[in-house]
Structures are given as structure tokens and as C-alpha cells.
Design brief:
single chain; alpha/beta; Rossmann fold; Glycerate kinase, domain 2; 2 domains; six-stranded mixed β-sheet; five-stranded parallel β-sheet; 13 helices; about 35% helix; elongated; Glycerate_kinase_sf; kinase; transferase; Glycerate kinase
């Protein structure tokens, strides 16, 4: 019996690699004869870099860049096992976790460090990029990134504006002719799992701004400023992208990458292709996936359902093991043989996270015992 373990991370609790290792240990305890292979995955947000590097046998390059609050921070980018593709995770340079809760203010945050990561990778000769959007503290529409790459955004006095969202409203002219020419030589694929446009009720500011510390008044300012800023860029380039699904991802970084000629692709698809998921599914009998919490939202592009869809096409049975199951999880039975929460009884979130290792292994062991029993019953039926 071959079982493939392909989970997402349990965000804020365990990385995808840690989850996969714990599931494997539990499965092997419950079904020692099973052949278990792991392929940790991610959705393009936090953990994307490490997951891809681990899955492909790549390496990590350490770089110091400008963080979201303009202070210098230790950062990194990854290089896949092909030695040709660089992976940049936005959260490594502009992540919400890099800003203390009390200091979060998207009006003052910048994506300058994202551009600096790109420059560092370009300097090392890389021209193929996977960009993981997600987890950003920013709402500057990629202003900082574009400035780091050589774009000029001037105010009414012809002075280059500061690389923060607060400056968007004061921009009067745009010039992207100075953007590093190596960008045009590059293939940039952006992992994006949201379909939000740049502006409006479903835009970057309205939907994600409050999560980053923006008040309702600031959301209105940010939305209007992003629209004016983006309109100037569109006029300058002759291309429109504000309404493209995903333009509003990561505080408008999706829009900026579109202006650089990047392709926005569902994060789950990128991760699956880069890690060889289909090839590994073809030799599996079962696949076990999971995430921190599964509910009705999991149906809409989340990684576990993508894994289950791929498995179904190949005739592989799928099981879901998540940190918790929320409202509407029953809809997931359309994709999974069974859905499990690792929580074994009444407990707080803090307690569940503290004991996640034991809970994960025990749940995986129980699921493996059921798979073993089902396999034995099937063999007995075939012999009759």
C-alpha cells in the first residue's frame, strides 16, 4: 500500500514539512507495511519558499533588505533544485509578521525589500522567478518594489516620493523606462490564490487593509490613492490591469507584477507542479492532505481541494486531516473519502497548538489503521 502525504502548513502552528513528517510518523505507526512518501506543499503565502526548496532539493540565499517598516531586516530567497529558478516570498521582505502588532499601519509600510530581493537574485544570474504573494503588511500597490527596480514616481515638484503607501496620493508623474532591463529578460510567475481586483469594495484596501491595521477612514484613503496611482501607471504603459483578478493581492503587488509582465497563476498549481505532485500521485493508492482549518472556504481554491481534485482524476482516494473543521466542511465530502480534525476533545486553540505534534500523529495513526483494515477487507473480498 502506497500512501502519499501532501499537506499545506498549519499556519501559525507547524510548517508543511513538519506536518508531513508528523503525519508520516503516525501512519507508519498505524500501518507499518505501508510505503509512505511525503510532498509538503504551500499555497503561495508564508512557507512557500522553504516548502519549494525542501521539495526540490534547492538552497536558500540570505540577503539583507529593507523591511516593511523601512528598517533593515535579514531576509532570504530560495533557489530550486533545477538551479535556474529563484523563489521570492513576499512575506520575507514585507510580511505582516515583521511588524509588531502595535506598529502596524499600511500607510507607512513599503514593498521596497521585495524589489531588493529581485535585484539580489538578478545579480546572481537568475531569470526565472516564482513569487509567493501572501502575508504582506503593505498596501502600496508595489510602489516600493517598482522604485527599487528603477521606477521613478515624482510629486508636483518633480521629487521622487517616499516608498510608502502614504505617498501614493502625491504622485503626479510616473516613469518606468528606468526599470532594470533584466526584468524584461525574466520569466516571472506569481503564485496568487485570491481574485480580488486592485480597487473597490473587493479591492486590496477594503478587503485586506483592516487585517493590516488600517482604520475605515484609512481604507478609503488607500483605495482612492491606489486608483489614482494605478491610473497613472496604466496611462504611462498603455496597459490596463486594475480589474484583473489578483491585481489586489498583497496590497496591490499583484498589479505591480502584472505591469512587469508577470503571469498570475493559482498558488496551489504552481506548488504542485514544482514539487512533482502529479508524478507522485500516479504511484499512490491514497493521498492524505490537510491545513490548519478546513471549512466551506476550502472549496474555493485552497490547496487541499486542489490535491484532492488531482487525485480524483488519477483514481487515487483522498483523506483530509486538518487542525480543525469549521462550518460547511461537509461540502468537502465531494472530494474526500473522510475528513478529520486532530482535536480529540474540548480544548482551547492554544492547547491544540501546543499539543499539535501528538494530536497529528495520533490522528494519522488512526486513519492509517482504517486504511489498513479497508485494504484487508478488499483483499478478502477479492479472494472469495
Amino acid at each position: 500500500m502506497r500512501i502519499l502525504v501532501a499537506p499545506d502548513s498549519y499556519k501559525g502552528c507547524r510548517t508543511a514539512s513538519q506536518v508531513a513528517a508528523l503525519m508520516k510518523k503516525g501512519i507508519e505507526s498505524g500501518y507499518p507495511e505501508a510505503i509512505v512518501e511525503t510532498v509538503p506543499l504551500a499555497d503561495g503565502g508564508e512557507g512557500t519558499l522553504d516548502t519549494l526548496v525542501d521539495a526540490t532539493g534547492g538552497k536558500v540565499m540570505e540577503v539583507e533588505v529593507t523591511g516593511p517598516n523601512m528598517a533593515r531586516v535579514a531576509s532570504k530567497y530560495g533557489v530550486l533544485g533545477d538551479q535556474q529558478t529563484a523563489v521570492i516570498e513576499v512575506a520575507q521582505a514585507a510580511g505582516l509578521t515583521l511588524v509588531p502588532q502595535s506598529a502596524r499601519n499600511p500607510l507607512q509600510a513599503t514593498t521596497l525589500g521585495v524589489g531588493e530581493l529581485l535585484i539580489a537574485a538578478l545579480d546572481e544570474g537568475y531569470r526565472q522567478f516564482i513569487i509567493g504573494l501572501g502575508g504582506s503588511a503593505t498596501n502600496d500597490g508595489g510602489l516600493g518594489m517598482l522604485q527599487a527596480l528603477g521606477g521613478v514616481f515624482a510629486d508636483e515638484n518633480g521629487q521622487q516620493v517616499l516608498s510608502i503607501a502614504l505617498s501614493l496620493a502625491s504622485i503626479r508623474s510616473v516613469d518606468l523606462t528606468g526599470v532594470d532591463p533584466r526584468i524584461k529578460e525574466s520569466q516571472i510567475t506569481v503564485a496568487c490564490d485570491v481574485d480580488n481586483p486592485l480597487c473597490g469594495p473587493r479591492g486590496a484596501s477594503a478587503v485586506f487593509g483592516p487585517q493590516k491595521g488600517a482604520s475605515l477612514e484609512q481604507v478609503e484613503v488607500l483605495d482612492a490613492s491606489l486608483h489614482a496611482y494605478a491610473s497613472l501607471i496604466e496611462h504611462h504603459t498603455g496597459r490596463s490591469a486594475q480589474s484583473i483578478p489578483g491585481a489586489g493581492a498583497a496590497g496591490g503587488l499583484g498589479f505591480a507584477f502584472l505591469m512587469l509582465g508577470a503571469e498570475l497563476v493559482p498558488g496551489a498549481k504552481i506548488m504542485a507542479e514544482a514539487s512533482g505532485l502529479e508524478r507522485k500521485l500516479r504511484v499512490a493508492d491514497w493521498v492524505i492532505t490537510g491545513e490548519g482549518r478546513s471549512d466551506s472556504q476550502t472549496m474555493y481554491g485552497k490547496l487541499p481541494v486542489y490535491v484532492a481534485q488531482q487525485a480524483k482524476e488519477l483514481g487515487v482516494k483522498a483523506i483530509l486531516i486538518s487542525g480543525g473543521l469549521g462550518q460547511g466542511y461537509e461540502d468537502l465530502y465531494a472530494y474526500f473519502v473522510s475528513c478529520h480534525s486532530i482535536v480529540s476533545g474540548p480544548m482551547s486553540l492554544e492547547s491544540a497548538m501546543e499539543h499539535a505534534e501528538v494530536l497529528l500523529m495520533r490522528t494519522s495513526e488512526n486513519v492509517a489503521r482504517l486504511i489498513q483494515a479497508a485494504s484487508g477487507n478488499r483483499r478478502e473480498a477479492e479472494c472469495l
